[in-house]
User: Fold this.
Amino acid sequence: MSRLGTPVQGVTLYSFTRAFHGREYDLEGLVRKVAADGYGPGLEIIGFSSFRGFPEIDDRFAGWFRDLVDEVGLVTTSLAVNADIGIHRDRLLTQDELIEYMRRQVEAAAKLGFPIARVQISLTPDSMEQLAPIAEQYGVTLALEVHADQYASHPRILALRDRYEQVGSPFLGFTMDWGATVTGFAPSLLEAYRRRGASDELLAQVVDLWNTFYEQGPPADQAEHGQRFGAFIGLAARNGRPDLGIDFGINGTGLFGPARVDDWLEIMPWIRHVHGKFFGIDERGEEPSVPVRDLVKLLVDNGYSGAISSEYEGWHWNSWQSPFDIIAAEQAVQRSAANDAGSRMITDAAEARRILDTHLRKAVQA
Amino acid sequence: MIPDRIIEQGTLTTDGARSAVEVRLPWYRALPGSCIAGAGLRVDGVAAPKDSLRWTMNGRTFTFEELVDETEEWWFPTDSVVLSGDVPVASGEADHEVDVDLTLYIPYIVIGENEVLHIEEHDTKTMKAVAA
Assistant:
């Protein structure tokens, strides 16, 4: 076993989408709050959410942003970027257009001081290979997010991993999203459906269906994923709530992935960044549907010393609780789990900078 | 995603024949004009004819046909746009029920051969109309 990992605590501003969208905090206000309330030191931002005019970033703005991050004592971890392949109504981007579209965002990441750009599954192994020299040119690692309904041992992810191995660039890796390895349908979402008039009987059937899929394990391919999606729609229709069917399907398959925690071992050496996806905190102070403790232990045991961005997604439906307390509580679970695993989470900014530098310089040894 | 915020409360304006309301993006990240696929505007159940609808974003006014090729102007998550159309409303103390439908393309979620996810969202709010 390698040395125990010391993951860096952090957050993505995506967790605070409601507060930003609702104009309670602007970008500067949110960055200052993250620092002041101790959600950092790691700071992740979605380019198209937080930066007006993204991916065009002028020098003056980049300077302002970097000064702000330094002043408040945070550490930029990952800039989440998007492959907008369908930006034209009548056609998809050509391969050359796509690479240029991504290049501009990688350049923005470098300018803003993010060492990682989170990319998504719509990029194929060929695209990642083509982007590798661009990543190296800008010194930005591309970490493709493994997100439900995919999971580490999914054929598409293994194809990417195998290509990474062939290409051999230390600038290609993965972002682990904990939503791929969930153990239950989130109770806060059941509560949201209850508030929309769903009966307890219907919700019990939703939970049963999800638990059946959990027992079966994650879908083998996109076809099986589609069948499961359809099963949620059918269940809603049979119970007289066809209006909830797509919602059940999207969340039941795309947010709550039923792979097992140790599935991540398939790609562990390539994990450069982590989305600590979660949906809520119960009265015991634990995450009731995401095995946060097991996931942190897995990372620590396997020597992971990159960042974990707490990614609270319960805001999609939970309009009755403040995200701020919920995220603080989830980070307390992460710290406790790291301690239980014989290590700790890094919460000091200077230490985080050193550890992240080492983490990203370490070439992938398969 | 956050459809309850589509219509900005208290923003209904009218010149009697034509009416407008401020609209918020029901999504977490900016989208270009090309991804704004369609909208509907009804006041007290009366729909504005589709060809009378206009979309004012970043100080520019578009028809929905013009938005199809618009990849320069983006709808930022904290910005209001103005949706207007030919629908008669009397300004004054009376309450009006405003309905807005939105169809958006999500350009990075590819769901099939040459196809990206589209979402349809709807919001209803009641407010008074202010003379434009």
